[in-house]
Amino acid sequence: MRDGFIKVAAATPKIRVADVAYNTENICRLIDETAAAGAKVIVFPELCITGYTCGDLFTQEILLSEAREALHKIAEYTRGKDALVFVGVPLAVEGELYNVAAALNQGKILGLTTKTFLPNYGEFYEMRQFRQGPKTAREIWFGNEKVPFGPQLLFVSPVMEPLVVSAEICEDVWSPVPPSIAAAREGATLIVNCSASDETIGKSAYRRSLIEGQSARLICGYIYANAGEGESTTDLVFGGHDLIAENGTILKESARFANGAVYTEIDLKRLLSERRKNTTFQAEKEPKLMRIPFEIQMEETKLTRIFSPRPFVPDQEQERDRRCEEILGIQAMGLKKRLEHAHAKNAVVGISGGLDSTLALLVAAKAFDMLGLDRAGITAVTMPCFGTTDRTYRNACKMSKKLGASLREIPIGASVAQHFMDIGHDMEDHSVTYENAQARERTQVLMDVANQNGGIVIGTGDMSELALGWATYNGDHMSMYGVNASVPKTLVRHLVHYYADSCADEELKEVLYDVLDTPVSPELLPPKDGEIAQKTEDLVGPYELHDFFLYYLLRFGYEPGKIYRLARYALGDVYEDEVIYRWLETFCRRFFSQQFKRSCLPDGPKVGTVALSPRGDWRMPSDACAAGWLRDLKRAADRV
Asked: Distance between CA 574 and CA 566 in Å, rounded?
């Protein structure tokens, strides 16, 4: 459970209607199986001890007394099992019959959560047998012990503070005001649902969207265990459709019409981080719900859930194409508004033949199309200097012409050489001064060309570069509108690829493909044998890794040690541990030390959930220290 992960399970046993002994045996067998797999919270379906479809048999004392005895037996069976188990049972209390989810732990019945909303429509007629649960919880005698009984009980772990579990039963989540809302407002991070939802056409999709939506609304984990094979098929069929969700995402889903268990890990720390950031998630000021401790041991949770190695890029091609089209639209719409507001007659883009400037030019073309303007109003400026290669120069020129932009070539070598003479810098000294002087000269040229043309300079730098501070202050760091400012490098590549695949011009497509094959480089050092000598990823590390680090640091507030663990898990087949550690350490140092560049960024459109604008998503003092983050990373590496 280190790093906030806890393994959970939704389990659907095969049952026989009204055969309590048979059902108990299968429930215990699945407790064995799920506990052996490491599940710490195990959820079974509604009324599974007897079967949901018993109908008027629920009024028979023999069924109810057997169910009561079975609950004691299953509770005792949990002794020695390091898990909190929820199982559905009919329970007679003070002359009334209730539909209950019993919480069991280490041989004890910890609490009995009652069903709040009883369906009595369509194929359901629960009010014929059951009574609605009480409005508030109380203690009742169950056997020789007092047990909490009622709605919205909270089960808390003294050894794992973020783990607060509450139960609801089937229809409760389908109601306008699910009981889980109150539970989440009082701190429940994990909602379990013991359910018996039958299958009809389209219902599985609706059920899935319902659980996704509830877990997103409450920023919680949600375990939904559904009745399956063995329920009566007199009029209904139950599919055993089990679901485990986390904050709007289905992490695990069972096949329908097949009993068994599904497992995954819920990230509790992620949920708490999201709740802290979300100012509309309001906790209950005066807690009212009963809190019940349960026993669980702290131990390592083996990860089985999927963490994408490229979290900014959808895995499925269809979704990726849809995302790319949407992002290009957002970028172009933002630029369109800026051009209109500034009464700009021209857009100036410094075009290098690299990925970022290519994307900026594509966005400018799309914005001009939206405005109904001639693309000749886009001035694409190529500024060859000491590091420019023939390949990038040719691609920059051909691409600009194919897109219909006005191409200007303004060599800056002589200007930079004069500048070196003015400040007394040796041309053979290829230090940072040598590189940054070129970047600042290019920005000056672009700004002045924009003044000549009555236009604005379009920034090309991407979010990954901003995170690392891989930009020359007041050089490529500056523009009048930065269209790529919230697009990470891994996504820039896919945006250009998508444009190439979807454009009808074969020559333009060929150029764009060659840009995609070109190593990422600022081209500020002289080429070697005509080839690019300065490759960015050799200097600051692979952008694939940096985008992974950036996503989890900003999106969920993960500590570096946890990011290191996830990177090893998701990218360990590509990078050795030492490589991941080295570049994560580099990322942390640069992210903190280079904040001053992000504190004065030009405007640019937000396109995703992670952004670095100092006016919006990321407000950080320029002098913040990375020491604590680096210590956490070292501790994690030492554990490995």
From this structure: 13
